[in-house]
Amino acid sequence: ETGVTQSPTHLIKTRGQQVTLRCSSQSGHNTVSWYQQALGQGPQFIFQYYREEENGRGNFPPRFSGLQFPNYSSELNVNALELDDSALYLCASSLARGQGARNYGYTFGSGTRLTVV
Amino acid sequence: GQNIDQPTEMTATEGAIVQINCTYQTSGFNGLFWYQQHAGEAPTFLSYNVLDGLEEKGRFSSFLSRSKGYSYLLLKELQMKDSASYLCAVRDGTAGANNLFFGTGTRLTVIP
Lengths: 117, 112
Description:
The complex is a heterodimer of chains A (about 120) and B (about 110). Chain A is mostly beta strands. Chain A contains no helices and eleven strands. In chain A, the strands form two sheets. In chain A, strands 2, 4, 5, 6, 9, 10 and 11 form a seven-stranded mixed sheet that branches. Chain A has a four-stranded antiparallel sheet with strand order 1-3-8-7, with no helix packed on it. In chain A, a hairpin with a 6-residue loop joins strand 4 (about 30-35) and strand 5. Chain A is globular and about 40 Å long. Chain A starts with a strand and ends with a strand. In chain B, about 40% of the residues are buried. Chain B is globular, with a radius of gyration of 14 Å. With about 110 residues, chain B is mainly beta. Helices cover about 0% and strands about 60% of the residues of chain B. The interface of A and B includes residues 4, 43, 56 and 58 of A.
């Protein structure tokens, strides 16, 4: 059973650029959630994807967008990067409600550290 | 929306017991999770509560009171390796989405 894989592990971008982060979900999981974690803070929910559609969104502007593919992997795209976008971006996979174990466990990847300069 | 509060920092002595509290407000409560996160690493699952009461798992226990919107994580026989951030997270089942929302995390320092 493979875990959640994120790429790249580290990335440096310039303000105003665009970035794409990638996540491969754990085998058997069909739902992917993305989080932004600033230094010293808890993860902030960006959005969740289930069946290739957005299934819940946190308080993030439209320049944060995503995709989910038929194999359940996912991408997070951020346009017009700002300095405050510098953070650890975490991806978590899970089974959607009613399809899995009692606690519908979430498995997290190791994250992508994005630095915007 | 969701509002999840936990202390920012705690310090405890090796071998002791520490309790980390979490209060929450959410419209569609569907379970509460505790995660451990070492600096620069992914959160790892510690415990899950959806019904009132205590769940015990080795040195770690977690308690939930849904009527009070309150949970705690209890760590016994503290070890130096327990120094980490502890994240309280609430799952919101509104519209079947089951989105997971985190508090700010409690940074625990274990001292000799």
